[in-house]
Design brief:
Blueprint lengths: L14 E4 L2 E4 L5 H18 L8 H24 L5 E3 L14 H7 L2 H4 L6 H15 L5 H21 L3 H22 L8 H19 L18 H8 L5 H8 L3 H7 L2 H11 L2 H6 L11 H11 L10 E4 L4 E4 L2 H7 L15 E4 L1 H6 L4
Length: 366
């Protein structure tokens, strides 16, 4: 059956043909809703021994309100945040009025499932960190609620897996600093919702920070080989795969042998050349006592002035032909030739471009 929707690319509503004509499918059947309403009326009648406590109108109003809240809390929260792609429209057209915002994109794209993928975890954490620094107050109320829901799942995952602890500490630190500025200095006029809600959120973030600081790393008993059992040249090759200097320093504190490898001058030179350019080297040249370049000090000095090169296992992609932002599933793309969205281009792969976290935010700056 043809339909008119807000976006001609969207699947629209589901319709079924009945004796009275076409009717829209509901996520919950009428029997389930009626049963829920009957149970609600029974619970109210059992609690209301005084006849003057509730009348029929109050009961009917309460039933309608509970019915509306039940549908909104179930259909929207569980069905709305599971899309793999969205159309990024920046102006009004005949098919759709308005434009796509950052909060709408954050709501509709499936970030809750993305944090379960080890290739996408760091990408989502970096995106939440950038939003916390500058875009938190611009999100809608639903987007802010979804933001803290995703953040809670990330914290739980880190506390359970004992991985990516430093990244989540930086995220919570930036978020708590931004909330303190918004609540105390800027004022509650820029925040959506009750100020007490934001104070509770800030207290929750401070609790999470304390939990991450008190986290004790436990060593599991394993009879297999450990990192220190590998030959030194293999340990050195592992250090050369790291992209962050703080990770190298942390690993160098494990054993004396790893500490010697982490102080390798050539290792820090490669790391500086990976993240920064030669022109940036000349502006912040640091020499050691022997007259050689101190690449380790150079790295941390350049890190303060210039952004590092970002590298992620998997990112969001943007199709220039369709103007669609989507998660690209490598397994489906390889097995079923699925591009991740309904692309109409003759050569879809040539139209795809990876989207960094900062680029994701810039897409919605009009």
């Amino acid at each position: 059956m043809p339909f008119l929707g807000q976006d001609w690319r969207s699947p629209g509503w589901s319709w079924v043909k009945t004796e009275d004509g076409w009717k829209r499918c509901e996520f919950y059947s009428e029997n389930e809703i009626n049963q829920h309403n009957n149970n609600l009326c029974q619970s109210i009648n059992l609690d209301a021994e005084d006849p003057s406590l509730f009348n029929n109108e109050d009961c009917e109003f309460e039933v309608k309100k509970r019915k509306k809240d039940h549908l909104n809390s179930n259909t929207k929260s569980h069905h709305f945040f599971r899309e793999k792609w969205i159309y990024v429209h920046k102006e009004s057209t005949k098919e759709r009025h308005g434009y796509c915002t950052l909060g709408e994109a954050f709501n509709r794209l499936d970030f809750s499932s993305a944090i379960q993928d080890v290739r996408k975890f760091n990408y989502v954490v970096k995106l939440l960190q950038l939003i916390a620094k500058s875009q938190l107050s611009s999100l809608s109320g639903a987007a802010q609620k979804n933001y803290f829901s995703v953040l809670e799942k990330i914290v739980r995952k880190v506390l359970e897996d004992h991985q990516n602890l430093r990244k989540i500490r930086e995220l919570l630190q930036d978020l708590s600093s931004s909330l303190c500025i918004l609540i105390r200095e800027v004022g509650k006029s820029v925040l959506i919702g009750n100020i007490n809600t934001w104070i509770c959120r800030l207290e929750t973030i401070l609790t999470w920070q304390q939990d991450t600081m008190n986290l004790q790393m436990t060593q599991e008993v394993n009879i297999s080989l450990s990192l220190s059992d590998l030959p030194l040249h293999m340990q050195s090759n592992i250090l050369y795969r790291f992209e962050d200097g703080w990770d190298i320093i942390s690993l160098g504190q494990v054993t004396p042998a790893l500490h010697v490898l982490s102080e390798d001058r050539h290792l820090w030179k490669k790391l500086c050349q990976y993240h920064f350019s030669e022109k940036q080297f000349c502006r912040h040249l640091i020499l050691s006592e022997n007259g050689h370049i101190d690449w380790k000090q150079m790295y941390f000095a350049l890190e303060k002035y210039y952004p590092k090169k970002e590298q992620y296992g998997d990112t969001l992609h943007f199709c220039r032909h369709c103007s669609i932002l989507f998660w690209k599933d490598c397994h489906l793309a390889f097995l079923f030739k699925d591009s991740g969205h309904p692309c109409t281009a003759n050569d879809p792969d040539s139209c795809f471009m990876p989207v960094s976290p900062q680029h994701f935010i810039d897409l919605f700056k009009f």
